[in-house]
Design brief:
By secondary structure, the protein is mainly alpha-helical. Among the domains are: 41-128, Orthogonal Bundle (Arc Repressor Mutant, subunit A); 161-233, no CATH class. The protein is 34% helix and 7% strand. The chain has helices at 41-44, 51-61, 71-77, 82-94, 122-128, 161-173, 185-200, 205-213, 223-233, 277-282; strands at residues 98-104, 110-116, 254-256, 263-265. It has a two-stranded antiparallel sheet with strand order 1-2. Strand 3 (254-256) and strand 4 (263-265) form a beta hairpin. Helix 2 (51-61) packs across helix 4 (82-94) and helix 7 packs parallel to helix 9. The longest helix is centred in the C-terminal third of the chain and has 16 residues, at 185-200. The chain is elongated, with a radius of gyration of 32 Å.
Amino acid sequence: MAFPQPSAPSRAESFVPADTPRSGVVHVNVRHTTRYTVVGNHLAQHRELSLLAIGLAVHIQSLPAGARIGIKFLAARFPESEHRIAGALRELERHGYLSRTRERLAGGEVVTRTVSYNQPDARADSRSDPVPAPAPVPEKPVRADREPPCEPLPEPDTPDLDRHRAATDLLVDLRRHDLRLLLAERDVRRLAPAVAAWLERGAAPDAVRRTLAAALPDDLRHPAALLAHRLTALLPPPLPARPVGAALARPDPLQNCEGCDRAFRAPTPGHCRDCRPDLRRAA
């Protein structure tokens, strides 16, 4: 015969509050006492920022002063690409959560100063009550054939498999023009979207090829980095949109005058201006 055990719980205890809603998220909150960051709902629930930008802002606000937040450093820390991280940083700049300025030190070095704002309007307030910022970290000089660290590779606005294949073939074929442009397969995969962006903007493949292979430095050591720099720095603007139904105006075809056999332009065969009977009578 089993004896009752009044001290034993009848079921497992639940951490779900008693006033649990029927649907939607349920919060189980434990008060933080160490290692936490206060983030405003204006950021966490921002309606115009992407999730990547919100998460990046939270990460930056949690870092100590002087921490590195360059694009390449963040791309090595997180699974997102340099292109996506650069776009998220631009979002934060547009909405007042971040500012990046380039300054030249007394020794001639160019540095980037990054300031993070936990309030979107803190940038204006900081002019009257500035907060001391950490000293900027000097940037290392960049070789001509190395990719600039702050410029992500361009990408096409719309994916197109045929255009991507053409971009890949163009990069692989560069070694036929100069043996030094022999690229590794991983470099071709990385650079192909940038070439596709050029093709999407109306650049002819021959024009892209000439731009990438022209005036190569004699001591070229990093061809992929040089191509990445040129694809980024020399990206042409998109072609202007053409009105729907608009066509390029073409001149009338050449005709041989039936009177003097002189060439003239007209939509149909006939006489030139000097031989037209109606014009001669009017004169």
